[in-house]
Design brief:
Distance between the termini of chain B: 53 Å
Radius of gyration of chain A: 29 Å
Strand content of chain B: under 5%
Oligomer: heterodimer
CATH topology of the largest domain in chain A: Rossmann fold
Distance between the termini of chain A: 38 Å
Largest interface: A-B, 55 and 49 residues
Number of helices of chain A: 24
Number of domains of chain B: 1
Strand content of chain A: 5-15%
Number of domains of chain A: 3
CATH class of the largest domain in chain A: Alpha Beta
Shape of chain B: globular
CATH architecture of the largest domain in chain A: 3-Layer(aba) Sandwich
Strand order of the largest sheet of chain A: 10-11-12-7-13-14
Number of strands of chain A: 14
Number of strands of chain B: 2
Structural class of chain B: mainly alpha
Number of helices of chain B: 13
CATH superfamily of the largest domain in chain A: P-loop containing nucleotide triphosphate hydrolases
Strand order of the largest sheet of chain B: 1-2
Chain lengths: ~600, ~300
């Protein structure tokens, strides 16, 4: 490995020590606070802890799932009221009440997020305002349940029959916060976290590696509101009294501010945000109007000035802390070969025609982009799709990979009808693709981008993630080793921990290819893989493609570099105005007069292949 | 009959508010979350001019329109312009929301918390129509709303500014290459939207009383109307606004009191789930768009 990554490794070690010291110090301070603080400050700190849980919850939604919601005061309130009523009116034990509250909040969250799978996410922001208003009405009007505007007194906080005093309450909440922080960290630094980050980053590319983003969004919001409900339940028992006004519009503003201020999508953001946002009003005790204006001003200014929030801005200076630890380890280099998916390979090898397209047609309004296209792709070949601009090549690929739905016709992959199937399903069956305009996950590092391709092969569960079990760590290690192998294949091993945006356009294209390869596809679909590549990089690419073919992977590609197409393809299909005008091996296509007319232009010189 | 006209009058104002949301949405694909505040400022400033400074009704509304235009431009300049590509970055939800909070609280400090009785046009003159007393003000609300709708449609379809709006709305980058100054077009849209919101706020204020809480009460109905009708087209705004007005009148007869609004929001949520594009969903009109170009 080159020198600077070793330096990065030592930087990482150094930063790690700093951060561990910081965390331990924070924990010790939290443990010691009751010894020095008076009851006012003890209550304030306890509230901050509850808000941290709430902010962690909202951060999963806003930061990691990309859903801005104004309803979190409502989720918090639902959790608080349900647990309060369960404990007070039905005499249920504290933990049962807490869990009921969290579940109730999560169910309400589910009702909001289900539409989110169908529509654009800013609709959800609108729905959430409606929900907040509805919840506020319900808290006020359903007096038999909530006590209405009179408020609701919650019976004393007891755990297993023991009544808690202030000190015990404090330590209980502290314990809960620490658990939430640890679980948050473990989930975010796992395949689930990477999936969420990838999804928020680039939906189409996420679908391209098999992430069903609408499902993830619903799950993300579910957990988010679950945590908010949990915080609400704790709040109910801690404060002992609930009033509808607590869960108002102003409280939503406060929740939003915590996360925006601290940094959306960062781990420590909610903590920093909760502390600062709680302390701001302490400065404005005399002028409540001014407090709201300051909140509003912060909400306007922070996203423009510090888009990553406080935590995100600090993190930029300690970027190396997030470097992947597995790829720093010493390991023995084995000869690496590109593999096909061992899950799906061999299941359906009887047919030699891996992909068959029958009478495929796509109409956009009155315009027919592809008309009655039929072609067959043989297993293990490199099949190129060429034709002038607007010939319908990308549309064809989009129909095959389920990005566009065909107006008519059939797509058969491994003897199975996959017409109109979503790309997320196809990925599992062994299709992977790259895009005409590079689609990488810019919030993940280079090596993580490749590892995203290998996400299909993880088997560790959410429980493994929460407890960071050996199984989880081994799988992660293996997947990152493999990702490194793919990176070395395209000569980007030394860039592993950098951001994809720091790569050249050609390197980005190759990185996307490496990601597609790491999905171990049987059919690799490439849309102009060499656009933007330099001559040397094109040569490298052609060598790489030969290796891919040797591994038995079938390649279907659109490409404009004729030298490359003629040299590497086994078959070529030529499209013009949405129709197939020629097909065959390179030599026959090259000498076909129809092709020369349509593609190279009338009277063009005969292309000579080497 | 009286109830019907009342519902239609309210509905036509919701339509105007939805139209104002649509004007911004059409060029930027963002929903102005500060819209409620803009409506409220339109109502409160015209109230101020009429009742405190005793300025002529029409003149007062014109002044309110100019203040709102200015306010909307300031909102764009301070909360939106610097965010860059709005399709990739959803911070605009937060910044516009923040702007709304600032405006509301300043309004509360200036205008106080007391709801104010807002005078009617023509001094609240009634006319007898089909055996019912109809307030001329309500008739004017409907007439004005329809005129503005037609005028806006004309501007969009027939003028060069309208073509620029449609170009920016279809493809901002290409429009920029073609020499259309996207940011100026967007700024103008914010300004028009603010003006329309001022008219809607001032005309509906006599029916609802003018107070700083209008932001919430009316803003959310404006969003509901825009969503029910389908975002980003004029007809949709009117379909959504009128249906919301009628729905509200109908629900109001059956469910009195505070739960009324909650029911309306519930219906809005159901509409979004069942018809994600609204009644006149933009989906129907964009059926032919190329997915290929997005990839």
């Amino acid at each position: 490995m080159p020198k600077f990554s070793i330096k990065a490794a030592s930087l990482q070690k150094k930063y790690k020590v700093y951060f561990i010291i910081l965390w331990v110090a924070l924990l010790l301070i939290s443990l010691a606070i009751p010894l020095v603080a008076g009851s006012y400050y003890l209550r304030l700190v306890s509230l901050i802890f509850i808000y941290i849980i709430l902010a962690i919850g909202y951060n999963i939604s806003a930061g990691f799932s990309g859903i801005t919601s104004f309803a979190f005061a409502a989720h918090f309130g639902v959790g608080a009221y349900v647990s309060a009523v369960a404990i007070t009116a039905y005499n249920l034990p504290f933990f049962v009440g807490l869990i009921l509250g969290a579940i109730a909040a999560a169910v309400v969250g589910l009702l909001v997020s289900l539409p989110a799978s169908k529509v654009k996410h800013h609709y959800l922001a609108l729905i959430s305002i409606g929900l907040l208003e509805m919840a506020h009405r319900v808290f006020n009007e359903w007096t038999w349940f909530t006590g209405g505007s009179q408020g609701l007194f919650v019976s004393g906080w007891t755990i297993f029959g023991f009544s808690l005093d202030t000190l015990q309450k404090y330590y209980f909440i502290l314990l809960l916060v620490v658990i939430c922080i640890v679980i948050q960290r473990n989930i975010v630094k796992s395949r689930w976290g990477r999936d969420l980050i990838a999804m928020t980053d680039n939906e189409i590319a996420a679908a391209g590696v098999g992430i069903n983003f609408s499902k993830y969004r619903i799950i993300g919001y579910f957990f988010s509101s679950l945590l908010a409900g949990l915080a609400g339940g704790v709040y109910a028992s801690y404060s002992g009294y609930l009033s509808p006004d607590t869960f108002s519009f102003q409280f939503t503003v406060f929740i939003l501010l915590m996360v925006v201020l601290g940094g959306q999508g960062t781990l420590s953001g909610p903590i920093i945000g909760a502390i600062i946002a709680t302390l701001i009003p302490e400065l404005f005790n005399a002028a409540p109007d001014l407090k709201q204006i300051v909140y509003g001003a912060l909400l306007v200014v922070i996203p423009q000035v510090l888009p990553a929030g406080i935590a995100g801005t600090i993190k930029k200076h300690f970027r190396e802390i997030d470097d992947n630890q597995y790829i720093m380890e010493k390991r023995d280099k084995k000869a690496f070969e590109i593999k096909q998916n061992d899950i799906s390979a061999g299941t359906n090898t009887d047919s030699d025609d891996i992909l068959v397209i029958k009478d495929l047609t796509k109409k956009f309004g009155g315009h027919t982009a592809v008309e009655n296209l039929s072609m067959t792709i043989k297993r293990g070949t490199v099949h190129s799709l060429i034709g002038p601009n607007g010939a319908g090549k990308t549309t064809t690929l989009n129909m095959i990979t389920g990005v566009d739905k065909p107006s008519a016709g059939m797509v058969i992959f491994k003897d199975k009808d996959i017409t109109g199937k979503n790309i997320v399903d196809l990925v599992r069956q062994g299709v992977s693709r790259t895009f005409q305009h590079v689609r990488l996950f810019n919030n993940l590092s280079v090596v993580e981008n490749v590892a995203m391709g290998g996400r299909l092969f993880y088997s560790y569960s959410l429980t493994d993630t929460m407890f960071r079990t050996r199984k989880m760590r081994n799988e992660e290690r293996k997947s990152f080793y493999e990702a490194m192998d793919y990176l070395d294949l395209i000569d980007l091993g030394h860039q592993a921990n950098n951001e994809p945006e720091s790569l050249s356009a050609g390197q980005q294209k190759l990185l996307e290819l490496a990601r597609a390869l790491s999905m171990k596809p049987e059919l690799l679909v490439l849309d102009e893989p060499c656009a933007g590549l330099s001559d040397t990089e094109t040569m490298e690419f052609s060598k790489l493609l030969n290796k891919v073919r040797e591994a038995g992977v079938t390649v279907l590609m659109i490409e404009h570099h004729m030298d490359l197409v003629m040299e590497i393809s086994d078959y070529i299909t030529v499209l013009d105005y949405g129709k197939k005008i020629a097909e065959g091996d390179p030599a026959s296509v090259n000498s076909n007069p129809v092709v020369r007319n349509a593609y190279l232009g009338e009277g063009a010189e005969i292309y000579v292949t080497s | 009959m009286q109830e019907l006209i009342f519902a239609l009058a309210n509905g036509s104002m919701y339509a105007l508010m939805a139209l104002a949301i649509g004007i911004i949405y059409s060029t930027t694909r963002i929903i102005n979350f500060a819209h409620g505040s803009v409506i409220m400022i339109g109502a409160m400033t015209s109230y101020w001019f009429i009742s405190v400074f005793h300025i002529n009704y029409i003149l007062a509304i014109l002044l309110a329109i100019s203040i709102n235009i200015l306010l909307s431009m300031v909102i764009y300049k301070t909360a939106v312009e610097r965010l860059g590509d709005l399709s990739k970055n959803s911070s605009w939800i937060v910044t516009l929301f923040g702007a709304s909070i600032i405006i509301d609280n300043i309004a509360r400090m200036i205008f106080g918390t007391e709801p104010k009785a807002f005078p009617y046009l023509f001094n609240g003159l009634d006319i007898r129509l089909f055996g019912a007393n109809i307030m001329l003000h309500e008739m004017m609300m409907i007439v004005i709303a329809i005129s503005i709708g037609i005028a806006y449609q004309f501007v969009i379809q027939k003028t060069s500014f309208g073509r620029a709006v449609r170009a920016v709305s279809y493809k901002p980058d290409t429009a920029r290459i073609m020499g259309i100054r996207s940011s100026v077009v967007v700024l103008t849209c914010f300004a028009i939207s603010g003006g329309v919101a001022a008219i809607a706020g001032a005309l509906i204020a006599p029916l609802t009383f003018a107070s700083y809480t209008m932001t919430y009460a009316l803003g959310i109905k404006a969003f509901a109307a825009a969503l029910i009708g389908g975002l980003g087209n004029t007809k949709g705004a009117f379909v959504g606004g009128i249906s919301l007005g009628l729905l509200e009148g109908f629900v109001g007869l059956m469910i009195p009191g505070g739960m009324k609004d909650a029911v309306i929001f519930l219906i809005m949520i159901v509409v979004i789930i069942v018809l994600p594009g609204g009644i006149l969903g933009a989906k129907i009109f964009n059926k032919g768009s190329f997915t290929a170009e997005k990839i």
